[in-house]
């Protein structure tokens, strides 16, 4: 009798584990899709003029989060500012704090990214 109960328990446990796995995967896919829709207007490449030198910064969604990085550098996650749809914060791996704000043009499309860091303001124009 005890062996029968153990066998039923194992089957039930396996079924529950598989169900939870499928539900988790579905929620992750839903969250990723939702984040992609939410951040779609921001995604792309922005060109920053850094004292005569051009720096391209790319923004994309991965695992339901918005990420950004200049060409050839490590990606950083952008943390949304609560209550602000177009404002984000980053503390880089080396401890540098930045505030980013995406700005819409007259037609309502995101056209710029303004970065504030160390008392400086840099403006990037969306190129792609």
Describe this structure in words.
With 128 residues, this protein is of the alpha+beta class. The chain has two domains: 1-39; 40-126, Lipocalin (Beta Barrel), CATH 2.40.128. 30% of the residues lie in helices and 43% in strands. The protein is built from one helix and nine strands. It has one helix spanning 2-39; strands at residues 44-50, 53-62, 65-70, 76-77, 79-80, 87-91, 97-104, 110-117, 120-126. The longest helix is centred in the first third of the chain and has 38 residues, at 2-39. The protein is globular. Mean pLDDT is 81; it is low at 15-32.
Topology:
Blueprint: H1 2-39, E1 44-50, E2 53-62, E3 65-70, E4 76-77, E5 79-80, E6 87-91, E7 97-104, E8 110-117, E9 120-126
Antiparallel strand pairs: 1-2, 1-9, 2-3, 3-4, 5-6, 6-7, 7-8, 8-9
From the structure above, extract its key features.
128 residues, alpha+beta, 1 helix
Report the CATH architecture of the largest domain: Beta Barrel
Q: Spans of 5+ residues with little confidence (pLDDT < 50)?
A: 15-32
- Give the class-level CATH name of the largest domain: Mainly Beta
Tally of DSSP helical segments: 1
Work out the helicity level.
25-40%
Summed up:
The protein is of the alpha+beta class and 128 residues long. It contains one helix and nine strands. 30% of the residues lie in helices and 43% in strands.
């Amino acid at each position: 009798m005890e062996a029968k109960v153990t066998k039923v328990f194992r089957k039930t446990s396996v079924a529950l584990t598989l169900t939870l796995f499928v539900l988790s995967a579905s929620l992750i896919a839903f969250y990723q899709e939702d984040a992609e829709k939410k951040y779609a207007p921001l995604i792309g490449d922005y060109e920053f003029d850094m004292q005569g030198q051009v720096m391209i910064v790319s923004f994309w969604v991965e695992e339901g989060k918005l990420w950004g990085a200049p060409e050839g550098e490590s990606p950083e996650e952008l943390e949304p500012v609560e209550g602000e749809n177009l404002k984000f914060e980053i503390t880089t791996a080396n401890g540098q704090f930045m505030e980013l704000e995406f700005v819409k043009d007259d037609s309502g499309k995101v056209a710029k990214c303004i970065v504030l860091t160390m008392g400086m303001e840099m403006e990037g124009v969306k190129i792609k």
